[in-house]
Design goal:
Blueprint: E1 5-8, E2 26-27, E3 34-38, E4 45-51, H1 60-67, E5 73-77, E6 94-95, H2 100-107, E7 112-122, H3 124-135, E8 139-145, E9 169-171, E10 174-175, H4 184-189, H5 195-199, H6 203-209, E11 220-225, H7 233-244, E12 253-258, H8 269-284
Length: about 280
């Protein structure tokens, strides 16, 4: 059994050697998903799927940085508040089946490995990445920035309807169990300033909505900021690694906490992407 651990970064990491490549994306056409593809000149590495957060659309800035490390990257939208013919406008009941086609598309590239992909999620996308990897062994490594250990209630188009929103994700047409949000009034009456932290006091809902990370048979890298004001990612990351490293699988879960970091580690870009590069290199060996 591999012990889990937390690393607190106060100084810059030594950057691993990577082959920088100038990359511009091409829109993937003729498929049933919405994605931009960043091609690389490397061969024999896992392709990487990048998932954005609750803002919707695509995380092309992150995807480009990963591609410049020498990886084929698919920047994948799963909802888009601006509207799209291929994905919904709201983050509600997103079917996990949607992600099968882009995964197979990336595995089918001539220069990528055909036995799986790496998945990289930011915030809400980190929640999704862990959910997907717990359902599908084709995900050979997981990178989750600002992760969640539970499935959350969905996000409607009109946030005044938040309290009646269904689950964020579905499987075979059924909603995944989720943690519902408390109202702002409940949050304040409970003495909380953060809605997610207040909602996590619903122990029954949390137990039902736990992502079964113990089923993930792949290495997991979690990154979080100690000053995250969006949700308690470091606390939730601790829960993830505790469960994952107590499972029968021999795959490590590592949590890196950047003490002064915000939700998406905007003030630790060099350090956090250095850690991601090292992780991806270890997965590619």
């Amino acid at each position: 059994m591999q012990a889990w651990y937390v690393l607190i970064f106060l100084l810059a990491l030594v950057q691993p050697t990577v082959q920088a490549q100038d990359t511009e994306p091409t829109v993937v056409t003729g498929v049933g998903f919405d994605a931009d593809h960043f091609a690389s000149e490397s061969n024999g590495r896992y392709g990487v799927i990048v998932l954005t957060g609750s803002g919707g659309g695509k995380a092309n800035d992150t995807a480009r940085l990963i591609a410049e490390m020498g990886y084929d990257v698919l920047s994948l939208a799963y909802f888009d508040r601006a509207g799209s013919a291929l994905v919904p406008e709201t983050l509600e009941m997103i079917p996990l089946e949607y992600f099968d086609a882009p995964k197979k598309w990336l595995m089918g590239r001539s220069n990528t490995r055909d036995d799986g992909v790496v998945i990289y999620g930011l915030s809400k996308g980190a929640e999704l990445a862990l959910v997907l990897a717990s359902h599908d062994s084709d995900y050979k490594a997981v990178i989750a920035l600002a992760p969640s250990h539970v499935v959350w209630q969905g996000n409607p188009k009109d946030f005044s309807d938040l309290m009646s929103s269904p689950s964020s994700w579905s499987w075979k047409g059924q909603p995944l169990p989720f943690v519902p949000y408390v109202s702002n009034e409940e949050k304040e009456s409970m003495g909380f300033t953060n809605r997610h932290a207040a909602s996590l006091t619903n122990k029954v809902a949390v137990e039902r909505a736990l992502i079964p990370v113990e089923k993930i048979d792949a290495p997991i890298l979690l990154l979080s900021g100690g000053m995250d004001a969006t949700w308690p990612a470091s606390r939730m990351g601790t829960e993830i690694c505790s469960s994952a490293n107590s499972s029968p699988t021999d795959m490590p879960c590592t949590l890196l906490i950047y003490e002064e970091g915000d939700h998406l580690l905007s003030n630790y870009q060099t350090e956090s992407f250095g850690a991601v590069a090292k992780f991806l290199q270890s997965v590619s060996q």
